[in-house]
Amino acid sequence: MFSSLVAALGLMLVLEGILPFVAPAAWRQMFRRAADMPDKVVRLIALGSMLLGLLIISGTKL
User: What is the pTM of this model?
Assistant: First the structure.
């Protein structure tokens, strides 16, 4: 179980690093736009992301 969590964390870090490595200017622009979003919008996006993640995780155990 622990090794799966470590592997998932490693994969997340690789995926998170692709955009800043390939297109750093676009990555900066995305963060500027995100910083200007209202808190409510940021929370809704985060909630959607968490729910999608839970759906993916629950689908892999079937």
Answer: 0.70
